[in-house]
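task queued by scheduler; priority normal; single chain, no ligands, no partner chains; default sampling; output format set to structure tokens
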Amino acid sequence: MRTIDRQWERAQRYIGEEQFIAARAALETLLTRVPGDVQARLLLSSVLLKLGRLREAGDQLLAVARSLPDDAAIIHRIVYCLHQVGESAAMHDCLDHPAIERSCDPGLLVAIAHMHQLLGAHERALALMDRAASLGLDDPDSRYFRSLQLQFNGRLDEAEAELETCLREGPTYGRAWLALARMRKQTPGHNHLDAIATQLQHVEPGSEHHAALEFARFKELDDLGRNQEAWDALEHANSIMHTRVAHDSLRERQRFDAIIDLCNEAFFAGAADLAEDGAQPIFIVGMPRSGTTLLERIVGNHSQVASPGELQDFPKQLRWAADVHGADILDEAVLERAATLDYPLLGGRYLEQTRWRVGDKRYYIDKLPPNFMLAGFIHRALPHARILHMRRDPMDVCFSNWKAMFGDSYAYSYDIATLAAHYAQYARLMAHWQAVMPHAVLDVDYTKLVNHPETVAREVLAFCGLPYEPGCSEIARNRNPVSTISSPQVRDSIHQRALGAWRPYETQLEPLRKALALSRQSAA
């Protein structure tokens, strides 16, 4: 057996035995003999992540990315791994490889389309899904994901038709029923309640499909004003998801305590004044469903602003700076190292990973709502960046979270007590940011925005250092892709319909109102 083969088998054996230090040594020895072995470098990167070596894992992947094989399937694997370590710019470059254009594997094209979706490149994602369909791919999964891309790209009628076809092929596909319910306001003459009721008889009890069908039933019953039936469906849906997805309010409070303790006035006093050259980010933060997408559409209408969407780059670069791998936006391991990070390096890394999206614009929007937790780290790393905080009435925003269904994200939203506790911690942290860095954060009130959009648009643009341009509040003319739950709604003009949307359920939501009051007291 060749030495190379023996080293490969030895590395595999060590990994199976979870002896990752030994596996690393075996793979590094192998690579001294065959430095161009893509599979060995990919495996070494995963071993390094197991050892907590995020930066070194990224270095291995970048070495592969600089010399890609002419194989679309392997390129897809490389791009996926680059995403795990936050190398967005390298992902983008790899996805331009001609091997992808030559591929005729429809399943692979859809998988690569998902990589484009992760980068916010929704037009390219849809083009690949269209190619896959032209090559004969036709199943409920591919139709569902294509319908989402059609929706994100503003082609709502086509998206609705694709969902209808998806559901004829896969009748218990719960998330598709929910997406269909959200496409428009349902009417007595046009709704899917009978079909949803039929599917509920066949779905696996307690599954995510089951929860999605109940959320869809709520949406349609709510549209029809059948409020008690709607509430029953919504309560059942949240109960299912709360059982499936746990949330630890105590751990969350401790994490917010640690953020506040670290990010005091002294923390910012040591910040370097970085030169303001090149395109600058504008961060839009807040709770989900607070109007962040609406604000993004307004600012994104400005001629000097690019709007690439919800970027994961800052939390990923914060992890790179801390050399800590993980999926959460922020955790204890990152916080333990946050006091001693190289923040200018973090800021530079962030700009390197995001500016390729900007073109010739002077500014670009980074709209990731939970970045509100990272606002202090953003300001320390990027002192010239502006942070827009979208603030909405507590009952409105909490009810909007309660009825949303975020999948495995935002687990706090599936239980009234954890929802109220999360809101209290969010409000406490935002008050802290205003106290310690008031010139970096602008609170934007949702009610004022929808009632006086031009006035608020002027205030927001001035805060960002942008000259006023008339018509920025005319969001219906904004043709940029949008990939949030509200993507069908923000294609219309600004309206006040969402104000007080919780009031038809005032009686049922009394526990939430009381819990919010108690949580605010305990968070103080």
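post-processing summary
- The mean pLDDT is 92.
- The longest strand covers residues 280-286.
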